[in-house]
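Hi again,

Forgot to attach this to my earlier email, sorry! This is the prediction with fe (ii) ion bound. I've pasted everything inline since the attachment limit keeps bouncing my files.
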Amino acid sequence: MKTILGIFFIKNPFKTIFRRDHGRKDFAWPTRLKKAKLMDDKVVKILGYLAKTMLKKIKIEELHEGMMIVDLGRSWTNHPFLGNQKRITSPKQIQKLKDYGIQEVIIDAGGEIDTAPGLSEKDQNHASREDIAVSIESKWPSLQPSPGEPLVKEISFAQELQVAREVQREAHSIVRNYMQDIRAGKNIESKKVKLVVNQMIDSIFRNRDALTSITRIKGYDEYTFVHSINVCILCLTLGRHLNFSREELQQMGIGALLHDVGKMKVPAHILNKPGKVTEEEFAEIKKHTLNTLEVLGKAGEIPDASKQIALQHHERYNGKGYPYGLVGDQISQFGQIAAIVDVYDAITSDRCYKAGIPPHMGIKKIYEWAKSDFNQVLVEKFIQSIGIYPIGTLVQLDTDEVGLVYSINHEKLLRPKVLLIYKDLKKPYSSPVLVDLMEESKESLYFKRSIIKPLDPLKWNIDVDQYLKEAISL
Ligand SMILES: [Fe+2]
Ligand SMILES: [Fe+2]
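Structure tokens for the complex follow:
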């Protein structure tokens, strides 16, 4: 049997390492590696890891429990697992692969591969944004369009923004009306929801960041409406990133947009209570998943897959969620996605009693919780879809300029477009200036600008929503 050493990192495996580019361009290995004095601990660890990794192609009949699959040789949508890497823990999984017609797999016969290369478990738990970027960019190369993806002409972020705003307004009025109807004891009908979800899908296919950028503009007074729309947009953004079919996106979008409508049956004084709720009140709030299911059951023509989102968005991968305490893959894929997105939007949103955390902190929290609460593969895909520095993050650059992340570079997560506000940490620009962090300096090997660190907009007294609103209406 032929042993393949280190083919896991196809082409130049070291290229991804240098995406942790504190101002450097990608280097070729190994001469520039030494020149650039980058032989740090992490690189050494990765080299050791590669040396230990022994990849073998084996027949499906030779696969048994305990083996670590690193490549299934096909898109993840064409096999039963969420990613191409999976440790086999039961004969059932092998049977599933056979059912999908898979005849050969590549396994790692030498080392562990289910943690990000070069990162210890401790590092994984407390990884920096750069570590996360390296890990995600190396494990998940840029997305290839799937054969079934509709042919929609992509347009620029700026071109799509106006339309995206209209779509968001429409969604807002629909969700608001539905919630009022439910409070009044009326049934809702699904037609308008389907229509607006389709408009959202079209927008995301034309430009995957325009609608997402609007999720950053939040007002605490309308939390439940805005949250529902944001969860829908972020689910669709991730779904597109995962190459879901239009039908799957529709099912997921409908479920996401309506996932919390059952909250309208929870007494308002509990729902809007500032501060901590009592145990009894929390028990009442928890009923909203089953309430939503009941509402959707009466709405007619709501797909079962959409209902799963309503029912399962508070389930947790470790079994500690509600209403049923489902564990791992007992939770549907849509349920797993909605759980991640729901928490991310909730912790990054302002509430009447508490300010939300900035988006980059939200990403870090979700990444830390991935090991217990969520499906780790989906968390990494989610971060790749919205960026390490999501739209609206306030950042300081190595030029001492300060600005807001305006749109994402999905191939290089650390190099988004930034709307510059301050020139030198003190002096504001007369009007915001849009720059691309991919822009190179003519004089050196370096990029012109790089992010040094994210900043707290509260300390800088910067109203992120206002800046984004103005930028969007330009
Ligand atoms: Fe909920
Ligand atoms: Fe929610």
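The pocket of fe (ii) ion (ligand 2) is lined by residues 227, 231, 259-260, 342 (CB under 6 Å). The chain has three domains: 3-139, 157-386, 394-472.

That should be everything now.

G.
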